[in-house]
Structure formats: C-alpha cells, structure tokens
Write a structure and sequence with these properties.
mainly beta; eight-stranded antiparallel β-sheet; 12% helix
C-alpha cells in the first residue's frame, strides 16, 4: 500500500509540473535599428593633375558632401541655379553627366574641374 500511495504521489507531482519554462503570455520585443532609407551614392573623381575629389550625394535630402584637399564642403540643392551651393553661398558644385566642377563664387575661382569616366560605347554587331 505504501508503494502504491508513493507511486500516486510521484505521478501527481510530475503531472502538476508539466508547464513550460517559457510563459506563453510574454513576448520578446526585438528592437530593430532603423535602416537608412536615403538614396546615397559615393563617387571619387580625379582631375588631370591627379587631385582627387570625393562626392557623396544624398538624393533623398538633396545634399552633397564634397571632400577635396582635406576640406569638407556640405552643399544643398540650389533652387535658383543648377547645382548645389553652401549655406553662405560661397561655394557652388555643378555636376552633369560627364563633368564635375567646384567653384568658389566670391572670387570666381574654379577649385576643381574634372571629366567623369565616360562609359565605353558599344556598337551593335549586325
């Protein structure tokens, strides 16, 4: 009789402790780091003298960061003229399909001018 009552006690104890260690009511919250949704491109252009200018364009915010000779210029889209200019309107950056120019406007000086690498033209075989 002692063996049967001991067996029932063990079985009832084991069946009472069948819950999982994880509480199903609690959820784990994972914080996601916000990914930058900006359209950013980075290009390095060299002129004929071997000087290099790094151009970082943010098309979403209409800004350009230009790095030349250890100087960094932050420019915004200019609504009056084509290209980008600084807040104090001393520098202007103009970029078209094949050329890049950085001007210092108050003294009419070109700080950097280079031609971009043009894609090689492909001729279709007939």
């Amino acid at each position: 009789m002692k063996k049967i009552s001991l067996g029932l006690l063990v079985i009832s104890a084991l069946s009472a402790c069948t819950h999982s260690a994880k509480d199903p009511d609690t959820t784990i919250v994972q914080q996601e780091t916000p990914a930058s949704r900006d359209d950013i491109s980075k290009v390095t252009v060299a002129d004929r003298h071997g000087d290099k200018m790094e151009i970082i364009t943010n098309n979403t915010k209409n800004t350009v960061v230009v790095r030349l000779n250890g100087q960094t210029y932050e420019l915004q889209k200019n609504l009056e003229n084509p290209g980008f200019s600084t807040d104090d309107n001393q520098y202007q950056f103009i970029e078209n399909k094949y050329e890049v120019t950085l001007l210092k406007k108050d003294v009419d000086m070109v700080l950097f001018h280079a031609k971009k690498d043009q894609p090689s033209k492909k001729i279709a075989l007939q």
